[in-house]
Amino acid sequence: MTAPAVSTPSALTGTPRPRLWAVTGALAAIGSIVSVFLSMSLSPEYIRGSVITSEAINAGLMDKRPLLIAFHIATLASGLLVVIFAAGLHRRLHATTGPQSIAPLVAFAGLLLVAAAQVLGSGLDTEFLFGVDDTAINLPGDIGFYSHWIATIPWLWAGGGLAALAVGVASRAGAAPRWIGVTGFALGGLTLLLALSPLQYMAALPGSLWLLVTALGFALGDRRASRIR
Predict the structure, then answer these.
(1) Average pLDDT of 165-187?
(2) Is the pLDDT of residue 229 over 50?
(3) Which residue, 184, 175, 20, is CA-closest to 93?
(4) Residue 126 and residue 76 in contact, taking contact as beta carbons nearer than 8 Å
(5) Is residue 11 part of a domain?
């Protein structure tokens, strides 16, 4: 992911950089964090020595339908907002690194993987939101599968780790502030290592944190730069 430095259009024209894409990234990160904690609250409580049955999961979800709706909204909104941030990030990095660097495209593609996981993670919500306790729609064993689905798929942040490392590489060409690059290498490396390990679901937290910090860094940093100019 070589990143030869070129002059940025903003630097040459003096025009302020748009920041809305960066703000959407911060909102996407918050949505992802909310999604993670809501999916945890929707999961049945594990008690050592006990057996978690489909009936217990079904009863728990019936009592938590408002949380299920909130989970659906947060997860899907996060996935859609990540796409907007990915497009803005690609434009921002590409303007500095130039066409020879693959870092902007890697960052874009990595975040698209995150968005896909978010959208797929919310894909069964309608089926079970209206079909909980209805055996004519869902078999008893289906609810157990759904419980695992919402507590795993939206947590898949391997692509986010890859995107963070790409931002770190691009920062070496001046495409991002140095501290954003260091953050990308640190949190991106941690996210990717967790994703590659059997603890892959834990990657969602450092991945979401990286997205939040990076998005705020671009949004607030560009705002300050435009004021100085």
Answers:
(1) 96
(2) no
(3) 175
(4) no
(5) no
Q: Residue 55, class by beta-carbon neighbours within 10 Å (0-12 exposed, 13-18 middle, 19+ buried)?
A: exposed
pLDDT tier, 86 (very low <50, low <70, confident <90, very high otherwise): very high
Q: What share of the chain is helix, strand, coil (3-state, %, to 5)?
A: 75, 0, 25
Domain membership of residue 3 (yes or no) is no
Residue 47 to residues 32, 123, 195, Cα–Cα distance (Å): 27, 29, 27
**Residue in this structure with the two tokens 């894409």, named with its chain if needed:** 21
Contact by Cβ (8 Å): 124, 146:
yes
Judge whether residue 94 has pLDDT over 60. Answer: yes
* 210 belongs to a structural domain: yes
Residue 125 resides in a domain: yes
pTM of the entire predicted model: 0.84
Domain span at residue 71 reads 18-44+51-228
Q: Could you give the number of structural domains in the chain?
A: 1
Nearest to 167 by CA among 187, 178, 181: 181
Measured at the CA of 181, the angle between CA 160 and CA 191, to 5 degrees, comes to 30
pLDDT band at 136 (very low <50, low <70, confident <90, very high): low
Instruction: Give residue-wise pLDDT tens across range 181-210.
Output: 999 999 999 999 999 999 898 999 999 999
- Could you give the dihedral angle defined by the CA atoms of residues 189, 192, 194 and 199, in that order, rounded to the nearest 10 degrees? 180
Computed from CA positions of residues 118, 124, 130, 135, in that sequence, does the dihedral angle turn out positive or negative? Answer: negative
Question: Which two structure tokens, joined as six digits, stand for 139?
Answer: 């078999």
